[in-house]
Input
Amino acid sequence: MDRAFLKYRAMWSGSAECGMSDADVDRYVEKLYETGINTLIVHLKGGDGTVYWKSDILPQCTHEGYDVFDLPAALLSACRKRGMRLEAWLIDYFEGKNGPAHREHPEWVMLDPDGKTTAEEMLRGKPWGPLWMCAARRPGYTDHWLLPLIREFAQKYDFDAIHHDYVRYPGDAAPDRYCFCDYCLENLPKWAGYRTEAYSDDPFFHEFYDRGYIEAHWEQSPRVLPANWESLPRSFKANFLLEGGFFQGGRNDLDYFFYLYRREAITDFCRLAKEAVNEVRPDMDVSAAVFKNPVHSGRFIGQDWRTFEGYVDGIIPMNYRDHYPGSFEVYLDLLKETIETQRQLTKNFKYYWPGAAINFLYFEEERPLHALAKALEDEDCDSAIAAFDAISDRIRSVSTSACQAIDALRKNPAIVSEARKEFATFRENIPGDYWPAEKLDRLLSVIGDTQVEGFSLFCVGHLDQYSQWTALRNAIPRD
Output
């Protein structure tokens, strides 16, 4: 176990958790500082499209109350006097349903082949809800909204870094369904050179076709779009751009260009954001929360963060347990392997801190609690007892009454309502000792053993939810 290399000990933090006064913020930062945290990445542009500072250029974005209370200034004061690093966590393309940008510019929203937004996607049996803004459209959300806000923040506040989040296309819903807005349907074929402007109706077929593979004749760039392109409905155009072929009778290879188009849009935004920051604050870094494998995320969400080099200084991959299969033990093994791979991929970046999520550490303890609650609600006594037995040792160590309720249920299924009430009381105030502190300790041991320079944990609120303040204090190295 070697934790001497963990120079930067960061946590993602919500904005509301910080408080609404200078004194509140100072107490909040002090508690983290005493715990051993020396870097804060604070949420200052939310998934609802609002910002947590007084915006002069887009005042309609300012979250209620933050036109009066200057949270970034309070954070700067509290962190600077303790020598702590401070980054501004901004959610990029995830705007939220009916956010200020969407209200004013509904045309900027990503659309699927049916002309629907991400808010209308069905996810796990219900409408998903959030809106995503098109990353490729110019002019649009990127250059008329997002970049001005980034530039404004950098000019107003001397933070150590701007931190990108959701710097990508949506992945929770079907990744291949976005974006087919009016702009992308027009721009992607132009970007990919699917037809010429000078002879837009001429197919320009190759003269000879004298080689063994039709794709070997690519260099003359024939017209790729079908002759009836302009009259096709959106869904047909989308299907062709994703599943069609560069050559009639050739391979169905247009998905390659679709994915490349999305990757380029995201990388170009990173370039523009870095330029905007450097214009007003040349010494300010830019970092990004990214998915663990850039090859995979490049294909599925347009986030090939290898291409961010020169535009992003710090890479903070979200190596969360829910991004891996298997048990906690499997997670730790795969995490170590992931970090070793990421270190090679990030050699030319200024800094690399692997990220982990506190809440996902406790699947073995939390999922049976949910299963038990559902079984009791459904009055399925056998399933309730089976769920309880999976975690009985942990519950018995912290709650005699909850155990007695389930033990009584074994003998008399008719008292299921009483067991349900008792267990609901237990879940409302789960004793801190129920959550095994050794999981956080082992996580940081694995990270420390890789000899990386730092880490980031998601997030401060979970220290309260899972009673892990003491566990964190005991797990991280001291200066």
About this structure: Residues 340 and 433 are 33 Å apart (CA to CA).
